[in-house]
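Below is how a single chain appears once it has passed through the pipeline. First comes the sequence as given, then the structure the pipeline wrote out for it. We keep one example in the README because the format questions we get most often are answered faster by looking than by reading.
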Amino acid sequence: MVNYWVAVAARNGLEKWLHGYEYMRKQALENYITWSVNHDVADIEKDDIVAMYVGKPVSGIIGFGQVTRKYNRKRGPPIWPWDKVPIDDWFTIEMKLLWLAPSIHGGYIRLTDIPWFKGYERKGLQPIKNTKGINNFKTMLESTINYHKMLRRTSLY
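Resulting structure:
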């Protein structure tokens, strides 16, 4: 069974997601992104779906990913430039991108557009457990992906 999650990048939020994307590109994984958190992610499983949330200045969802791998980066090298020392005991998930906002200046899903999302924008990785939240999440994901597919089909470029 697929579960649904919100990953919140609080400190250096947008920059952290962009570095996670670039890190995976350097590993020759073009449509993937990585994200780490300093608490156990034991409950998250392969194929789970994650909404990537950024606080200020965006205050919204910048993408969705499907988990392909999770692991504990004990004594691993830093991924982000602000990690000055090797990471000790960080939990990392890698995701295949399902959708990424077309621009950091727009195209993301603003929090004001999704009132049911209130409370999920806390720091870290949080599961969406209630049925209504899961249904809202699925609808948001499907609508976003379909909308952007439609835009690509009708583009004049």
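Helices lie at 13-26, 131-154.

See the next section for the split statistics.
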